[in-house]
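Risk register update: the risk that structure generation would not scale has been downgraded. Supporting records follow, first protein first.
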Amino acid sequence: MMFFSPSRPSVASGLWQDWRDDVACVFARDPAARGLPEVLLAYPGVHAVLLHRVTNRLWHADWKLTARLLAAFARWLTNVDIHPGATIGKRFFIDHGAGVVIGETAEIGNDVTMYHGVTLGGTTWNKEKRHPTLGNNVLIGAGAKILGAINLGDNVRVGANSVVIKDVPPCCTVIGIPGRIIQQKGIKIQDPRGIDLDHHLVPDPVGKALSCLVDRLDELENNQKRFVVAEETCGSCEAEGVCHGEDVVVLKQAAGGK
């Protein structure tokens, strides 16, 4: 039975309340929002969520084709692809919206914020739970990919462009490819390699590792100078390619040199 059936007024009133909450939460999370008409007319992320509230009710009322057609229209309109079967909690906000994909078995808690380019994707073709589950107050940065039937606890923050493929405990910050937990709430991480940052100071572990490698190469090259034999002292010995420091005399004599 459809969500607007007269026999189910509570469903329709619940939809209206969800819509109100979805619009109201924008003003708390986006300082660029200046008024209700602007949000209703110019925010594709809001349009996508409002339409999903309808398609999800159609889906669970077994109007699945109608739900998919309306979801396809919403994707064309907003560039946000949310499967009608996805479960989304209250006050869900997609900022900017473009390129967001949310799979069929994804579950999203209350007060979740998501930025453009995010994917809640599956890792199997089997008809089972194959998409992520997000807790309450989760923030997903732009371009992040959350893949598989994994769980992100409450208050988790995922850095932009991260790829998360394992469970993340509550109150953690995760970044990188693959995603790594860099900080937990109330815990200051001290790492000799420099990863000691808040979420707004996202580290560059690859750049840091390359810098360490360069320093190490410099050290190795300086040490190697002790084992390099000067060209004028090596003569025409056939073994010069294996001469090493103090062993040079022994090696040259063994090869017939002077």
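Supporting record for the second protein:
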Amino acid sequence: MASLKELKLRIGSVKSTQKITKAKQMVAAAKLRKAQAAAEAARPYSSRLEAVVASLASKIAGGSGEGASPLLAGTGKDDVHLLVVANSDRGLAGAFNANIVKAARAKADELIQQGKTVRFYLIGRKGRPVINRTFPGMIVAQFDTTGVKEPGYAQAEEIARELTNMYLNGKFDVAHLFFSRFKSALAQIPTEQQIIPVKIPADADRNAIGATVEYEPSEEAILDDLLPRNVTVQIFKALLENNASEQGASMTAMDNATRNAGDLINKLTIQYNRSRQAAITTELVEIISGAEAL
């Protein structure tokens, strides 16, 4: 049984931890409002741009006509798949990072069973240990975000440029982006999105614009400009969604940790009081016994 001194030290230690988790919860809650607003503001733009690109692509012989951009037409192969896994650099966010990695691992296992070659491109560092242990030697590159406080368009441009260069140099045939879509502070949804080449829905032309449009310059020329921008925008959206999801998961995790610390403090306090009462009772018995002996 722990001594009174040990119990007192444990109570003090848990109280210190509770102060830290409470402070981190409040910080995450403050950051969440801004991150959520940014993520929600990016959704209409990214989805509309994706729809316009798909509509234009559907006009070019199904997206595989002569002169179509490689970002649209593809390499003509489906052998090498690059899984772009967006994680954070920090922990204390519950299962936020683990869920994204789990989705990427499931996709990698599926592709490997189909005989495909799988490679990983990592954004952030939290997912690296698990992926490197599960798929050794398959990480081809990593984008360092340790110095980035909030995701910006510049980082998305840099990532998109690097991925596009890898694609044009024949490093992979298809790129899948994995991130966590923000739903609420309690729910973040691991999401997969094919970003290279552009995936064209069957009803793209009907749903995107809804009217007959003549383009100047040609659809091909417009797509040559929009396709790289679309990759950047989709990555930027993913980074914003991830940031909001991370703050929501962190706030929830720290709230749970604060509550658990409070419960532990109550239990330790009861144990301390009982032990102290037992010690006082023992001392009183000893005093009374000594007085009677006299």
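Strands lie at 80-86, 117-123, 139-143, 174-182, 188-196. On this basis the risk owner (M.S.) recommends closing the item.
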